[in-house]
Design goal:
The protein is of the alpha/beta class. It folds into 2 domains: 59 residues, no CATH class; 246 residues, Rossmann fold. It is built from 14 helices and 11 strands. It is elongated, with a radius of gyration of 28 Å. The protein starts with a helix and ends with a strand. It binds S-adenosylmethionine. S-adenosylmethionine binds next to α8 and β6.
Length: 409
């Protein structure tokens, strides 16, 4: 018994020694980063650089930590009760400086993360090890959940859709205004979450299926396989479709065109360091611009015609971009031929996005036809005819949520 207590003391002493020595070494090694962070906060937000926060430690014993400041100090005390203040709070109307945003992104508060882990475990998304010690408990992500949540190239990856919903919800006040006055909300105004959610949601589809899709259109496949083939990918967003076409056709050059500058900048970054970097180019342009020129074997428009304020103008410009014998392929939503209520899962999903994103987005410009996400095949046939195409064929490419159309000049 005595020996055990002695052993414990030795162990505790060794641990304290090890922790303190380790912390001292880490402080010395990380001091350039800590110093640079402190200087940057001082320059961007002034003093103080750090603030104290009291936290509950082992066995609930309170301890004080020093944290880098990333928000403006609140001028008044917390609800007039300074004893309830826990560190620094956001002053009303204050913005978080850019550098501070970076600091905040790279660190997480333990208490919040613990609550989130518990929430994820009770909903069955994470598995918990059954320990009663809330701080020592270990959580794991089951293999099947990993694919859906974090494997960004898996066809089962769902996280981007959640991000897109968050991005659309952010614009709810603007959408409500648009409902009242008939205006719209521009795609660019929805910001990063929607744009990146959309791009990341379609990325695995393009990555795994593009070669198969285009391979099912024999004459187009033959033409794109020949040396010197040229493709224009209209409304390419962040460029994953453009990159996938270039990967499928090593002899081809592919130009991605999109109105949205941040999307085009990201598309350029996405292509950097890929094997197709020297065969893709991205252009921030309005695809309806009659000045666009080219002689392309194929023009593609993936999941975007229904978003356009003037689809006939864009399809007309796309027709003029085609070389003799060239083809336009449109991929859009596989909604029913006609409105039917109640609708299937695809219709429900698409109408949700229509109300929150696609319709307000297309109505942000005037004039606008205001298509909405549930673009029926007959609607596209009408646009194609008005743009001068001689025929529209629905291609026999199977997909649960997308339909493919071939438009011949
Ligand atoms: C729903 S996103 C689809 C993006 C991409 N094709 C994808 O599948 O991820 C619609 C895209 O259409 C683009 N767009 C809409 N009207 C356009 C126009 N007139 N010219 C070029 N791009 C346009 C938007 O900027 C947006 O990137």
């Amino acid at each position: 018994m005595v020996k055990l207590v002695g052993d414990n003391r030795v162990r505790a002493f060794t641990k304290v020694l090890f922790d303190r020595l380790g912390a001292a070494v880490a402080l010395v090694v990380l001091s350039p980063i800590i110093g640079a962070t402190a200087v940057s906060i001082r320059l961007s937000m002034g003093a103080p650089v750090v603030f104290h926060q009291v936290r509950a430690g082992h066995d609930g014993v309170p301890f004080t930590i020093l944290k880098f400041r990333t928000m403006e100090m609140r001028a008044a005390s917390c609800c007039g009760r300074p004893e309830t203040c826990r560190g620094i709070q956001m002053a009303p109307g204050a913005t978080i400086p850019r550098f501070a945003r970076f600091v905040r992104r790279t660190g997480l508060d333990e208490r919040y993360v613990r609550e989130w882990l518990e929430q994820q475990a009770v909903t069955g998304i994470l598995a918990a090890d059954g320990s009663e010690d809330a701080r020592g408990r270990r959580y794991t992500l089951p293999a099947g959940h990993r694919e859906v949540l974090v494997d960004e190239l898996s066809l089962a990856h769902m996280t981007p859709f959640v991000r897109a919903i968050v991005g659309s919800m952010r614009m709810l006040p603007g959408i409500m205004e648009a409902f009242a006055d008939g205006g719209g909300v521009a795609w660019a105004d929805y910001g990063d979450d929607l744009r990146e959610g959309q791009a990341a949601g379609n990325r695995p589809q393009f990555h795994h299926l593009m070669a198969d899709w285009l391979g099912q259109v024999p004459d187009v496949h033959a033409r794109l396989s020949a040396p010197g083939a040229r493709i224009a990918d209209v409304a390419c967003g962040e460029g994953w479709s453009t990159i996938a076409i270039a990967r499928a056709y090593p002899n081809a050059r592919v130009d991605g065109i999109d109105l949205d500058e941040p999307a085009i900048e990201q598309a350029r970054r996405n292509a950097t360091d890929t094997e197709v970097a020297d065969r893709v180019a991205f252009h921030a342009r309005d695809a309806a611009d009659p000045a666009l020129q080219g002689a392309f074997d194929l023009v593609t428009v993936f999941e975007a015609v229904h978003d356009m304020s003037q689809p006939v103008a864009v399809l007309g410009a796309a027709r003029r971009l085609l070389a003799p014998g060239g083809t336009l392929i449109v991929m859009d939503e596989r909604v029913a031929e006609q409105f039917t209520a109640p609708g299937d899962d695809v219709e429900r999903f698409m109408y949700g996005f229509s109300v929150l994103v696609c319709l307000p987005n297309s109505l942000a410009e005037t004039p606008s036809v205001g298509t909405g996400t549930a673009m029926r095949p007959d609607t596209l046939r009408g646009y194609a005819q008005d743009a001068g195409f001689s025929g529209v064929t629905v291609l026999a490419i199977e997909h649960p949520s997308f339909r493919f159309y071939r438009l011949d000049p």
